Amino acid sequence: MTVYIEPRDSARSAFGDEEHRILELLASRYVGANPPIPFAYRPFSKQGILQNEEGLYDMELGSRWPDAVTGDYAYVYGLVWSDNERSIDCNLEPIGPIRLYMNDQLLFRTSAVEEMKPDARVVVPMLLTQGWNRILVEARRTPAGFGCRFGADEAKVRILNVLAPFAGRDGSAGWVFSEPVKKALYGETGFPNERLPEEETGIRWLPRTKWQEDEASKPNLERLFGTPETTVAGCGWTKLPLLPGTDSLVLEGRVLGPASVWLDGQLVLSLTEAGVFRESLKPDTGNGDLIIRTESGEQGWGFELKASSDGKPMALRQPVHIHGYDGEWIYAGPIAANAELDPSAVGRLSALLPAVRLDGQDAGRSYWELDMPKTRLRPYYENAMLSNKWTVGTATNYGRWDYPLGVTMYGLLRTARELNREDWSRYALSHIRTCTDMYDYSLWDREEYGFPSVNHQLVLMKMLDNCGSFGSAMLEACLQEGDGVFRRIADSIVDFMLKRLERREDGAFFRLSEGEYFDNTMWADDLYMSAPFLTRYAVITGDKEVLNEAARQFLLFRRYLFIEEERIMSHVYDFKYGQATRVPWGRGNGWVLFSLSELLERLPEDHSDREALLDFFKAMCSGVAELQSGSGLWRQVLNEPEAYEEASCTAMFAYAFSRGVRFGWLDNGDRDYAAAARKAWKGLTENAIDRGGNVHGVCSGSRYSFSPDYYMHDLRTVVNDNHGIGIMMLAGVEVSRLNRAGSVV
Q1: Residues with Cβ < 8 Å from 567, sequence gap 6 or more?
Q2: 15: pLDDT confidence band, cut at 50, 70 and 90?
Q3: Is 627 within 8 Å of 640 (Cβ atoms)?
Q4: What is the mean pLDDT of the chain?
Q5: Which residues of 492-525 are buried (b: 16+ CB within 10 A; e: fewer)?
Q6: How far is Cα 114 from Cα 345, in angstroms, rounded to an integer?
Q7: Of 49, 62, 592, 662, which sits 20 to 30 A from 714 (CA to CA)?
Q8: How confident is the model at residue 247 (pLDDT cuts 50, 70, 90)?
Q9: Bridge partners of 180?
């Protein structure tokens, strides 16, 4: 028996057979440990270092410094926060000689072959320490090139956010890069002091953050966007600190063209021409969102606005906390002068605004800018990695779109319904909407900057892992509360699955990723990554063909992966070798049974594939049930007696068995599946869930192998891994419902 916790520390010791108390424990711990911290908003310059579609930062310096000569040096410098010590593989594509340093240590130096080979790529393992990690790239100009491309491997999953060094850039996102210099200045001799002003280095660093004197003298919108040839408009947005009992408010200032002012969505001032203004108001209590829209005029383009109450000046505030920016206003423009603006839509950080060029021609959409040279506001997902500069942060999963969190949100939604806890339902819905509300922005962000700063997997959808699981949780939430953006995202996912995803000749989903270790393979996991989403989509839309596709995939995967004599599934079929691995990884089998139960629940009784799918479900359940250990848990490799006992697959089997009995798909002829489910839950509450709600014994995310040793010895368990928390809640819900039903539908 594998021991994860002492019996005295177990949830069962504290709560016994009270499933609801244990569910409350699991959900409360997760929500408490993952507070709803929003995206971090930071200044970012498009004139800085951008990422390509693979997520590599483009540090090619030859085009930035065309006058640099052979032998010149230049530096790219950035800071990366890590909540704990962790390793990350980075890819580096040199364009000439490169030295890569981290925290004053040389990590990598190009060889002669790498410097001269146009398509060279090297993998650089990096061990990030807890706190701030200083990364310095030294490039030297040669006829072969000047610079490199550098970034995290699988960048949309292993997010490598970089902040700027130097005191004057505190909180800004992105790398800084130096002007060319004639000799090596940094590296083995030390790094520039990131806490001091950059001017103390004696060299120039870009992108620049300060206005030149002639720029600073211009009106604000003209300074930001230029001098228009035709009449255009621009917006400013700030907040007033309206306190309860604020009886009077005075807005005064100057505009250089016609203007309108809204306070909390209500038009409070309309000016038909340039000039000074003063307006007294009696405000309603609200958020204090103050938005001004003004057109360019003969005197220029811009505005000045201040507020007072009871004769005392009011300090304006940023609409959102912006790291590294001390201005009160954010700006948008140029906008067509005849464009109708809804102030309630404009005053949202997810909103994109209609844009025109300065000559009045349509330019698509734009986003909020800051009063800094060529600098926009940009949101970042930093919760699992970064915090405020110079402080230690708390990791949280909130706001991330990925497949383990899809299961977690589904578990929270089901637990909330089971225990009538609207607060948990609101939390899960808020997490989901944090992603979906920024969907349009994240698509725009990808197009604008090359690689998105939020919703990485959703907008860079290339695998079922990227979309199906979290998409399924989104649709589960949609069953409770409809949302138009949910449907648009779901339509995009369905289009990907049915029209763009790789398939075998027989129509089976598989993975075709040239150059990757998993190229030309089929994974049992992918039934979960696709079928529950397709099933929910079919229920919501009534699209029978989508439901048929989900059913079809199960029968196709069975042909490739089912081990008939043992009635369990191989983890992977490798088409490169023309065979299945015949290693029955526990969670891989769990994904299959879990997902098949979701499909069977919603599949019509007269569906042509129902009997075949029921046969598949019953056969797998019988094979899995025979391998349950004495503790109630199943093993990491199901048929290996020496493998450790693993919690996430156990929870999935408890879930599937409970549903099989409750819906009448399993009879207890030769085996008592209800007893097996209860035994599994007892084993989990005794051995894997402690009295603090922490989940133990969950295998980390897996690759694959033809050898069971990989799963048994290389894949170790992680405390509170997201692969196990949600399914633990789901198992508890289903066992509770099974017990209430008395094992009878």
Answers
A1: 619, 620, 622, 623, 624
A2: very high
A3: no
A4: 93
A5: bbbebbeeebeeeeeebbbbeeeeeebebbbbbb
A6: 51
A7: 592
A8: confident
A9: none
Decide: residue 537, CB within 10 A, 0-12 exposed, 13-18 middle, 19+ buried: buried
Q: How far apart are the first and last CA of the chain?
A: 34
Place of tokens 């920016």: 325
DSSP run (H or E) holding 609: none
The per-residue b/e assignment along 211-224, b for 16 or more CB within 10 angstroms, e otherwise, is: eeeeeeebbbbbbb
Structure token digits, residue 259: 């203007």
In sequence order, what are the beta bridge partners of 693?
none
pTM over 0.90: yes
C-alpha closest to that of 476 among 525, 428, 512, 422: 428
pLDDT tens profile 563-592: 999 999 999 999 999 999 999 999 999 999
CA 537, distance to chain mean position in Å, is 22
Distances in whole angstroms, Cα of residue 61 to Cα of each of 66, 134, 181: 8, 20, 13
Residues with Cβ within 8 Å of residue 611, at least 6 apart in sequence: none
Indicate the pLDDT class of residue 724, thresholds 50, 70 and 90: very high
For 561, residues 6+ apart whose C-beta sits below 8 A from its C-beta are 522, 524, 569, 570, 571, 572, 573, 580
CA 375, CA 208: separation in Å to the nearest integer? 9
Other Cβ atoms within 10 Å of 176 Cβ, number: 26
The position carrying tokens 């598949």 is 616
Torsion sign, CA atoms 322, 323, 326, 327: negative
Tens-digit pLDDT profile for residues 414-452: 999 999 999 999 999 999 999 999 999 999 999 999 999
More confident: 576 or 1: 576
Q: What is the pLDDT of residue 543?
A: 95
- For residue 499, is it left (φ>0), alpha (ψ between -120 and 50) or beta? alpha
Residue type, 433: R
Residue 402: band (very low, low, confident or very high) from pLDDT cuts 50, 70, 90 = very high
